[in-house]
Amino acid sequence: MIESIQYVLYAGLIISCIFSVFFSIKSRRSIDGKARGLSAAKMNISMGFMLLILAFIQMFIFSGSSIRVVIGALFMVLGAFNIFAGIRNHGLWARYSPESNKS
Question: Which of helix, strand or coil describes residue 67?
Answer without folding.
Answer: helix
